[in-house]
Design a protein that fits this description.
This protein is an alpha+beta fold and 676 residues long. The chain contains 22 helices and 19 strands.
Length: 676
């Protein structure tokens, strides 16, 4: 007779706690009192306010497994096993109740839970039986399946699910799990194949820019003109895609350039005018103006002008919709009331639906009931308007503008190759439409060719041109870095909250960094021993000197290193503050903060080493010598940053020679060193 294993008291308590936890979630008001808790999918679109330019306007949570996880709808998905599925639903609902931010982030929580679900299949989906090993197993599966940039977020959500289990005593034993995935951070190193590949993947190719220049004068169709002009604005401004596509119609700003109370004049004696675009920063912040570089002003002016021309009819429809709430802009000249009937032929002409889609198919998808007269189907005007209004999108309450005041307002299916454009439904041009325009897209239903493929442009080796809208932002940031623009100015121009965010967009190579240093040396914007030696040379010898002493450069925590690592590894690694081949960029807040932190550490280490030297500990004098030289170097660095007479952005060479790190100082020579 087989033995039946009875549940332990802790497991019984865990099951009771799980039931109480789920009951509490069922009674919650998060996502509405009428939410069907037991459904395997939740439509929470009304609590979700997407970006105006986002293609996906709806938000649906699918409490399903990894199988067919990208399918639309529940038809081919597999619901999670119960009670695990109910537990995750409870976590999602209660978390939104306590922290009602944008609910879209909870999709990642559900994605993380699917890895745990796979570990529970043999235990009938019982979350009370979860162990630390199950979380480790889920993390390993995540590491094998997810991209490096996604693993960290999945690990954070797994850690939070473990916290919910522990907090409400739902598991039979405590879960000790920490996110095993490190956060992906930008590495300032500019040497090596990996970083060359990263730069190539973030910056547009020369062939892409040449092709865009040619295509900008070839396009004729309205959908292509609007999108290529949008790309031109991205090239000139470095906007995030949503910032560009949510520009107001009246976005242009012009101001006279005033200096010392007087207007500046150009070469022809005319008053200089600066030109910019008014926009809303995507990641917080007040409305701002993006001032356009002089060389790109004419390009942006043309872009805005032509976009206005092609969007004017759609803007007229948007204004009518806003002034007639609850009505659709449909056959206004022949409005005979909601019971007016339209034949299939009538609708083909009014809606412009081609034989490819068919009016009957269009009506069936939208649930329109036909009235048969003879053998021909007819449709009520009221039903048609209802279907059009269901397709219509309006900005949410947080939107700064009504729909008609956006620049990029376009009709439904404006960019579709085969579907009819429905001028009665107004949209904002979406990020997906720009992405398809630049990169193309393949799916099960077919393929969309990029604008480069349509006009026959490729890379020199014949491969397709690959381009994304965000590459222009990386490119402009890199140009600003190459041109010597200050970190604060770069952060401000790109609408960033702090200068630390600049680094991920800086793709200046070591050779380009070196060229920048040589240019500063030549122009007299460099100080220190190297600059003095350069100035003492005859002018004919200076170019050769610059090329010899600054062959390459890369960023460090404290400044710029000009050691050529291609010849040999750094002989004094980690001692940048005292190195003769290290330069300081005055005013860089990140470098200054790092120098202050390192100074505090080395002062403490020096004081401890001095005590050991006083006690005649073997080798302690070597540590005293090293830490004292580091303290002196770091103090010199901070003195440069704090010197008001040195302009920000100036490159300073501090150390003419490397002090000996392992020199044996006598105790008398270090008596003046600080002590604990």
């Amino acid at each position: 007779m087989p033995a039946e294993q009875l549940p332990s008291a802790r497991l019984r308590d865990a099951h009771a706690n799980l039931a109480s936890f789920i009951d509490r979630a069922r009674a919650s008001a998060a996502f509405g009192r009428d939410l069907d808790f037991d459904a395997s999918s939740w439509d929470v679109s009304q609590w979700h306010e997407p970006r105006a330019s986002s293609q996906a306007k709806n938000l649906i949570f699918y409490f399903t497994t990894h199988e067919n996880g990208t399918a639309k709808g529940m038809s081919s998905r597999r619901p999670m096993l119960l009670p695990f599925g109910d537990f995750i639903k409870a976590v999602v609902r209660l978390r939104h109740e306590t922290n009602p931010r944008q609910p879209v982030i909870l999709r990642v929580l559900i994605r993380a839970s699917r890895y745990l679900h796979d570990a529970l299949i043999e235990r009938c989906g019982d979350p009370c039986s979860l162990l630390t090993d199950d979380f480790n197993s889920a993390a390993r599966a995540c590491g094998a399946r997810e991209k490096q940039s996604s693993r960290y977020r999945i690990g954070l959500w797994l850690e939070e699910i473990a916290d919910w289990l522990n907090r409400y005593a739902i598991s039979k034993s405590r879960i000790d799990f920490c996110n095993p995935f490190p956060r992906v951070v930008f590495d300032d190193t500019r040497i090596g194949k990996q970083h060359d590949e990263r730069r190539a993947g973030k910056l547009p190719s020369l062939a892409a820019y040449e092709a865009l220049g040619a295509i900008s004068n070839l396009v004729e169709e309205a959908s292509e003109v609007v999108r290529i002009r949008a790309v031109e604005i991205l090239v000139a401004t470095g906007f995030r895609i949503n910032e560009a596509l949510t520009l107001p119609e009246h976005c242009e700003v012009e101001e006279e350039v005033i200096e010392n109370g007087k207007p500046l004049l150009d070469r022809d004696g005319r008053r200089r005018v600066r030109y910019g675009l008014r926009y809303w920063p995507e990641k917080g912040g007040d409305p701002d103006i993006k001032w356009i570089p002089t060389a790109m002003i004419d390009v942006v002016r043309r872009a805005v002008r032509e976009i206005r021309i092609h969007t004017a009819p759609t803007r007229k429809v948007a204004r009518w919709l806003e002034s007639h709430p609850g009505r659709a802009y449909f056959d206004l000249e022949n409005d005979q009331g909601p019971d007016q009937l339209y034949s299939v032929n009538d609708l083909e002409g009014i809606l412009g639906i081609s034989s490819y889609g068919g009016v009957e198919s269009w009506a069936k998808v939208r649930g329109l009931a036909a009235t048969t007269i003879g053998r021909a189907p007819y449709y009520r005007r009221g039903d048609i308007e209802g279907a059009l209004l269901a397709m219509q999108w309006f900005p949410g309450r947080s939107s700064p503008l009504p729909l008609s005041n956006f620049l990029f307002v376009v009709p439904h299916n404006f960019c579709h190759d085969r579907k009819a454009t429905i001028s009665f439904v107004v949209r904002i041009l979406t990020d997906l439409q720009i992405r398809d325009f630049l990169s193309g897209r393949k799916s099960k239903r077919g393929a969309t060719r990029s604008v480069f493929a349509r006009y026959g442009f490729t890379e020199p080796d014949g491969s397709p041109i690959e381009l994304t809208s965000h590459m222009f932002r990386h490119w402009l940031n890199t140009l600003a870095q190459q041109g010597g623009m200050g970190e604060h100015e770069i952060a401000r121009w790109f609408g960033r909250k702090d200068i630390g965010q600049n680094a991920a967009y800086d793709h200046v190579t070591g050779m380009q960094k070196a060229e920048e240093v040589r240019r500063l040396m030549e122009s007299g914007s460099m100080r220190g021993g190297m600059a003095e030696l350069h100035e003492s040379l005859p002018p004919i010898l200076r170019p050769e000197f610059r090329g010899t002493v600054v062959a390459t450069a890369h960023t460090t925590d404290l400044g710029l290193c000009i050691t050529d690592w291609s010849l040999a590894p750094c002989p004094d690694h980690g001692s940048c503050a005292r190195c003769a081949e290290h330069l300081i960029v005055k005013g860089d807040a990140t470098h200054k903060a790092a120098a202050q932190e390192m100074l505090n550490e080395h002062e403490w280490l020096l004081a401890a080493a001095v005590i050991e030297a006083d006690e005649e500990t073997y080798g302690a004098s070597n540590y005293v010598a090293h830490h004292r030289s580091m303290v002196e170097g770091l103090r010199r660095i901070l003195a440069v940053h704090n010197d008001p007479d040195i302009p920000d952005g100036t490159v300073v060479h501090l150390n003419m020679a490397m002090p000996l790190r392992l020199e044996n100082y006598s105790l008398e020579a270090i008596d003046d060193a600080p002590r604990c």
